[in-house]
Amino acid sequence: MEKPKLPKIMRDFLVYLTTIKGKSQRTRKEYEYDLTLFFRFYIAIQNEHELSDLTKIDISTISIEEIREMTLEDLYLFMEYCEVQRGNSASARARKVATLKSFFKYLKGKRRLVEENPADELETPKIGRKRPIYMNIEEATQFIDGIQPNRASPRNYCMMMFFLNLGIRVTELCQLNKSSIQGRYLTVVGKGNKERTVYLNDSCVQALADYENSGKTTFKGEGEEPLFISQKGTRFTRQTVAKIVKRINQQSGLQKERLTPHKLRHTSATMMYKSGADIRSLQHILGHSSVATTQIYTHIENEELQHVLENNPFNIVRSREQFIE
């Protein structure tokens, strides 16, 4: 499908996101998708077009004058369209709200192109906080034991150790270079290109040494040499790492439902919290910009408190008949 031509103001905003705000290319694509959809919807509403197929609408002619005419009511109509006709979840709609808020804030605050920001009063849909899905120690052990012995096993084992011990994101793992290792410390580039340094425990150090001594594939690409190299001699992609995790999950016989690299991150964080890590330390290790994000792992406290109360010796159920005999 041919990529739509974007209005200049939108292109400028997307460049600002990556060069100034430090957003990833993935985030940039998501914002581009959301704004393209919104502009197409707006043009369709203004011209009384059918909303069944917005892909044919050209947004390249959208001008700053038209953007100045956009109102909070237009944004509400768009959010209703996303919920009712597109069936977007609360989290999907929340992302679109974030996109619109960021775009109009840029127009008013950075470019001084609009006097009023219609997205100022746009509320974010409430999202129910989900408990992170993770493996317990027995499941994680079975998962690791499922790594098939072959030429790639030292590399795959090392990657899984980094996930489970360091709780890094899959994109962070793919971006690691040989130069990221300094003795027993690893420099990780997280969201917004923010760097953090994490300590390599004995398990990671040993796994890394075994990988380095395994006669790994030679890097055939350009630029800095990645820490982890695919069989083709290239840097890993998120999708390839996800396939490796899926294959290990199947080979181990664990068959954990929807097990992804991100679930390995959840497993690591959960186990660290259960082992006594405080929230602030965990925030740094995981690279969370806000401690509120890290607090999803406090669900462990609730589960363990429930277990304690269930095992209270006074937890004895008596029937009504026992009291009236």
Put the structure in a nutshell.
This protein is mainly alpha-helical and 325 residues long. The protein contains 15 helices and three strands.
How does this structure look, described?
With 325 residues, the chain is mainly alpha-helical. It is 52% helix and 4% strand. The protein contains 15 helices and three strands. It has helices at 8-19, 25-46, 64-68, 72-84, 90-110, 137-145, 153-166, 170-175, 202-212, 238-251, 261-274, 279-286, 291-294, 299-310, 320-324, and strands spanning 181-182, 185-189, 195-199. It has a three-stranded antiparallel β-sheet with strand order 1-2-3. β1 (181-182) and β2 form a beta hairpin. The longest helix has 22 residues, at 25-46. The mean pLDDT is 88.
Order of helices and strands: HHHHHHHHEEEHHHHHHH
Q: Main beta sheet: strand number and arrangement? A: 3 strands, antiparallel
Low-confidence stretches: none
First-last Cα distance: 78 Å
The residue-averaged pLDDT reads 88
Class by alpha and beta content: mainly alpha
How much β-strand is present in the residues?
A: under 5%
Work out the radius of gyration.
25 Å
How many runs of DSSP E, i.e. beta strands?
A: 3
Strand arrangement, major sheet = 1-2-3
Shape: globular
Number of contiguous helices: 15
Helix content: 40-55%
Give the SSE layout.
Blueprint: H1 8-19, H2 25-46, H3 64-68, H4 72-84, H5 90-110, H6 137-145, H7 153-166, H8 170-175, E1 181-182, E2 185-189, E3 195-199, H9 202-212, H10 238-251, H11 261-274, H12 279-286, H13 291-294, H14 299-310, H15 320-324
Antiparallel strand pairs: 1-2, 2-3
Helix pairs in contact: 1-2, 2-5, 4-5, 7-9, 7-11
